[in-house]
Amino acid sequence: MRFDEAYSGNVFIAAHPTYEDAQVVIYGMPMDFTVSFRPGSRFGPKSIREVSILLEEYSPYLDRELTEVKYFDAGDIPLPFGNPEKSVNMIGEYVAKILKDGKFPLGLGGEHLVTWPVIREVYKKYPNMVLIHIDAHADLRTDYEGELYSHATPIRKAVELIGGGNVYQFGIRSGTKEEFAFARQNLNFYPFEVLEPLKKVIPTIKDRPVYLTIDIDVIDPSAAPGTGTLDSGGTSPKELLSAIHEMARSRLQIVGTDIVEVAPVLDSSDQTSILASKLVREILLGFIR
User: Fold this and answer.
1) Cα–Cα dist 40/263, whole Å
2) Where does Mn(2+) bind (predicted)?
3) What is the pLDDT of residue 145?
4) What would the 3-class secondary structure string for the chain be?
């Protein structure tokens, strides 16, 4: 776990050189050991960093520049390949250190299972937290073909930990009949759409700490083909960006976030990684003041 020196590989554009006085820590979770279709998201963090050089440091949406925020790129957590349980524990230990030091964790995945240990650590610090989950898939299975550690299970684990009344799902358009029934009965469930229902929810959670997890496959495959489990009929990049800006302008108390399931090997044009990189920029400038 490296916090005392700058990452020696590619870093996110304009990253701050030192951990100590950084407000935000960007870290990668290169894991795709439990995916149910196509692997490749373990290369997502590296790709998001590499394409960030294409970004302007200025956001015309928010009228801010990246130089206004101190963020440190800690590189990727050295996860043991093929061992999801140990990897989950290592991610949790890593994020616990970031939170203990009073810094904002910004994770890059990796399959969506990587979000589970982060939620667990954030909940320890903020027991009244809210989880906002933006995704194509419900991720509410108790297991996937007998495997408890699966990218189909992280939100169900979160519900069991923090309670379904504290979980808000947006954009969901894929899952089993049982998952949809469970979500409608137990969660704050807004399938198929993101921006409009989010606008209605924000005033009700404005005074609570919020963790935000974004699965890139919430975007329609026409605009983000580089992900392992494609599902047509998704939202647009413009709508997702607008959702981030809505949360930023409403001054939601976002205490951490992640972007997961970017699989660059499945997108020869890198448009999925480029979109994720832009989302990182807007998160940095929208949520860190």
Assistant:
1) 5
2) 112, 135, 137, 139, 215, 217
3) 64
4) CCCCCCCCCCCCCCCECCCCCCCEEEEEECCCCCCCCCCCHHHHHHHHHHHHHHCCCEECCCCEEHHHCCEEEEEECCCCCCCHHHHHHHHHHHHHHHHHCCCEEEEEECCHHHHHHHHHHHHHHCCCCEEEEECCECCCCCCECCECCCCCCHHHHHHHHHCHHHEEEECCCECCHHHHHHHHHHCEEECCCCHHHHHHHHHHHCCCEEEEEEEHHHECCCCCCCCCCCCCCCECHHHHHHHHHHHHHCCCEEEEEEEECCCHHHCCCCHHHHHHHHHHHHHHHHHCC
User: Known binder of ligand: residue 139?
Assistant: yes
What is d(CA 202, CA 208) in angstroms, rounded to the nearest whole number? Answer: 10
Per the annotation, does 217 bind a ligand? yes
Establish whether 16 is an annotated binding residue. Answer: no
Instruction: Tell whether residue 112 is among the known ligand binding residues.
Output: yes
Q: Is 137 annotated as a binding residue?
A: yes
**Distance separating alpha carbons of residues 112 and 109, to the nearest angstrom:** 7
Residue 113 is predicted with a pLDDT of 95
Give pLDDT, residue 266: 96
Summarised one tens digit per residue, pLDDT across range 219-268 is: 999 999 999 999 999 999 999 999 999 999 999 999 999 999 999 999 99
Enumerate residue ranges in the chain where pLDDT < 70.
1-8, 143-147
What does the pLDDT read at residue 112? 95
135 is in an annotated binding site: yes
Contact 67, 23 (CB under 8 A): no
